[in-house]
Amino acid sequence: MSPGLEVSLSINGVPTVGESIPMSVTVTNQSSNPRVLMEYLNAQLKEYNSGPQKSFWKTHREVHIQPHEVLTLKHTIPPSDYESVVADDDIVNLAVVIKDVRTEERVLDTKDFNISSPRITIEIEGGDSIQMKKEHTVQVSFTNNFTKTLSGAVLTVEGSGLLKGKQEV
């Protein structure tokens, strides 16, 4: 039997809400023959302790690879493709299948990841220092990185012994 294919999928950086998700698929042709391959890549949500759901993003293309060549195929999921389906605690399952068109040999790799929430900024008014048993005012903010206007969003701030109740805006 001749040497086959190897595939490796990687997420580039830490995916953050509102930003594109860059990824790379590395394909290695271990044989002495050139190959024509089909690359199938998709992303779907996966709730904790369950299987993947319907895909929210997918792509496919034909790839030509030379003997003993290593190819790196780059892809990006734009925020507009995931922002309406991904919730804060969802896991994203990314899967790639590489198929040799002639031999129908298939190789697969998958990655599971979370998309980080937007960064929340807390600024103390009047300086960076605080004193015990003295009231202070802080400004809590975040930037909407989505491509759409948020409506019905709630920012909740609470702190044990720091606030009088829970603050919602």
From TrEMBL:
What are the Transglutaminase C-terminal domain coordinates in residue numbering? 6-94
Show the Gene3D superfamilies listed in the entry: Immunoglobulins
Any one GO CC term of the record: mitochondrion
The entry lists its GO molecular-function terms as: protein-glutamine gamma-glutamyltransferase activity
InterPro entries registered for this protein in UniProt: Ig-like_fold (IPR013783), Transglutaminase (IPR050779), Transglutaminase_C (IPR008958), Transglutaminase_C_sf (IPR036238)
A Pfam family = Transglut_C
Stored PANTHER family = PROTEIN-GLUTAMINE GAMMA-GLUTAMYLTRANSFERASE, TRANSGLUTAMINASE 5,-LIKE
Q: What is this protein called?
A: Protein-glutamine gamma-glutamyltransferase 2-like protein
| UniProt source species | Lates japonicus
